[in-house]
Specification:
The chain is an alpha/beta fold. The chain contains eleven helices and 13 strands. Helices cover 41% and strands 18% of the residues. The protein has a seven-stranded mixed beta sheet with strand order 12-9-7-5-4-3-13, with helices on both faces. The chain has a four-stranded mixed beta sheet with strand order 6-8-10-11. Strand 1 and strand 2 form a beta hairpin. Helix 1 runs parallel beside helix 3 and helix 4 packs parallel to helix 5. The radius of gyration is 20 Å and the shape is globular. InterPro entries: ClpP/crotonase-like_dom_sf, Enoyl-CoA_hydra/iso, Enoyl-CoA_hydra_C, Enoyl-CoA_Hydratase/Isomerase. Belongs to the enoyl-CoA hydratase/isomerase family. It comes from Planobispora rosea. Pfam families: ECH_1.
């Protein structure tokens, strides 16, 4: 993988990027690449991740985002070396600098985001997993919300995690810090699928391919309604969804989809597979 450098904050020697990007056929892969500290959420990594996500969201040719990592660990959570402060001094924890915004970017992304876990995840790393629309992991991976065992709280990540997990399971694992396996993670809603390691890439590619077939506007709206409709009354839900259905059938995207189906051709929004850019 090529290494793209950025100028260090003090104007010294260029620093290697800790997050890389690559595009192929409408799918942008964003890779955490700091294996020396198990892809921990350092200030540098968070800055690079925010930059890469902004790029993927703005890039017109990107239809699906895949978030993954290098090494045996997807993300170990906060970089604890950066969290140490002198007792009695006022100090803002570095991990809070951009992590909430990053999780919000992923959660609210109009483009589907697939988390391809390359391995184990802990603590803050699970906030990223939960923020993504889909999460695929090898069945050998393990997970834990370790915050309470350090005397801290899984505060920021609870915003995404508690929207995924079964409530009883959330209490069990957030309060005990116990490690659990990928099968259990799928059972309680943290993962979409847990698969043998040899099937990981094929499973991620399958989901990405399915998503590429959906209209971009339709996918963004469907992502919203999956979350919002359950909170509506039946009557209000029926009223709002009837309006949305009518709007979409008569929209340019809806009409293109219907025409493509009738003419037995791919719709205009399906990317050409040859559109590929190398890693950065």
């Amino acid at each position: 993988m090529s290494q793209v450098s950025q100028v260090s904050r003090d104007g010294g020697w260029p620093m290697e990027r800790l997050v890389h990007k690559e595009v192929s056929g409408g799918v942008a892969t964003i890779t955490l690449d700091s294996p020396r500290n198990r892809n921990a959420l350092s200030v540098r990594l968070l800055g690079d991740l925010e930059d890469r996500l902004n790029w993927a969201l703005a890039e017109e040719g990107v239809r699906v985002i895949v978030l993954t990592g290098t090494g045996p660990v997807f993300c170990a959570g906060a970089d604890l070396k950066e969290q140490r402060v002198e007792p009695g001094t006022a100090h803002e924890a570095p991990v809070t600098a951009s992590f909430p915004e990053i999780m919000s970017m992923i959660w609210n992304s109009p483009k589907p985001v697939i988390c391809r876990l390359n391995g184990t995840a802990r603590a803050g790393g699970l906030g990223l997993v939960a923020a993504c629309d889909f999460a695929i992991a090898p069945d050998s991976a393990s997970f834990a919300f370790t915050e309470v065992r350090l005397g801290v709280v899984p505060a920021m990540i609870s915003v995404t995690v508690l929207r995924r997990l079964d409530p009883r399971a959330a209490a069990e694992y957030l309060m005990t810090g116990e490690t659990f396996d990928a099968a259990r993670a799928q059972e309680i809603g943290l993962l979409t699928r847990a698969v043998p390691a040899g099937e990981l890439d094929a499973t991620v590619a399958h989901y990405a391919d399915m998503l590429l077939r959906g209209g971009p506007e339709a996918l963004a709206l469907t992502k919203q309604l999956v979350r919002q409709v359950p909170a509506l009354t039946v009557e209000e839900g029926m009223r709002q969804m009837a309006e949305l259905s009518a709007q979409r059938f008569t929209s340019a995207e809806g009409q293109e989809g219907i025409a493509a189906f009738m003419e037995k051709r791919p719709p205009a929004w399906v990317p050409s597979p040859e559109k590929t850019a190398g890693p950065e």
